[in-house]
Amino acid sequence: MTFSEENYLKTIYHLTAISDSEISTNSIAEKMETKASSVTDMLKKLSEKDLINYKKYQGVSLTEKGSLSAKMIVRKHRLWEVFLVEKLNFPWDEVHDIAEQLEHIKSEKLINKLDDFLGNPTEDPHGDPIPNANGQIISIEKQLLSELNEKQSGICVGVKDTSSEFLKYLDKQEIALGSKIEIISKESFDLSLKIKVDTKELTISNKIASNLFVKIM
C-alpha cells in the first residue's frame, strides 16, 4: 500500500470505532480535510484491493483483510509513540505527528522487535490499546469522567482528545495517566466538576471531563 492508502485505511478504522453504521464519504473527507471527490477515487482503489466494502451512496466498511491491515498501521503508530515517550523522553503532546511518519515503515520484523524491546506494551501514552502482532486488542474497562457521580473515584486511563492543546492543559493541571481522580462535587448548572487529583483540588469544565477516561475504583 502507498502512504496515502494507509492513511485512508487508518481513518476509516478510527471512524468505525466511534460509529454504529457504515462510514460516509463526507465523514472521511472531513476527517482527512480533503474533497469528497478525492475520497471517492481512493475508495475505489481500496475496494479493488479488497480492503473495504464500498458502493456509491451506501457508505464504507472494512473487510476482514482491511481491518487487519488497519490494525497493523495503528499498532506501529502506537508502539512508536511509546518508544518516543519512554525511551527518548518526548512529551506526550508531541509524539503523534512524529509517529504519523514512522507508522509507514514496512518492516514487520522491526516492529515486532520494537514491541519486544518495549516490553510488549498494551497501551500507548494516551491510554489507547495497542493491537498485538495478530491484530488482537485487549479491551480496557473505562468510562468518561463526566459520567461519574459525586464521591466516586477513578484512575485516569486515557484521553478522548489527543490534541496538543488538550494534553498541554492536562500537564499544566498535573493530570496524567495513572492519576487518581475523585469527584468532590458536580455543578448542576453547567456540569462543571470540583475534583481532587491525587492530593490537589481543582475545578474543571464538563468539556474537560468529557475528554478524560477513567477506570472506576
Automatic annotation (TrEMBL):
Single Gene Ontology MF annotation: transition metal ion binding
Entries under Gene3D superfamilies matching the protein: 2.30.30.90, Iron dependent repressor, metal binding and dimerisation domain (1.10.60.10), Winged helix-like DNA-binding domain superfamily/Winged helix DNA-binding domain (1.10.10.10)
Key word Transcription present: yes
InterPro entries in the cross-refs: DtxR_MntR_Metal-Reg, Fe-transptr_FeoA-like, Fe_dep_repressor, Fe_dep_repressor_sf, FeoA_core_dom, HTH_DTXR, Iron_dep_repressor, WH-like_DNA-bd_sf
Signal peptide (residue range): none
Keywords: DNA-binding, Transcription, Transcription regulation
Residues covered by the HTH dtxR-type domain: 1-63
Pfam families cross-referenced by the UniProt entry: Fe_dep_repr_C (PF02742), Fe_dep_repress (PF01325), FeoA (PF04023)
Role description: In the presence of manganese, represses expression of mntH and mntS. Up-regulates expression of mntP.
Assigned protein family: Belongs to the DtxR/MntR family.
This protein's name: Transcriptional regulator MntR
Taxonomic placement: Bacteria, Pseudomonadati, Bacteroidota, Flavobacteriia, Flavobacteriales
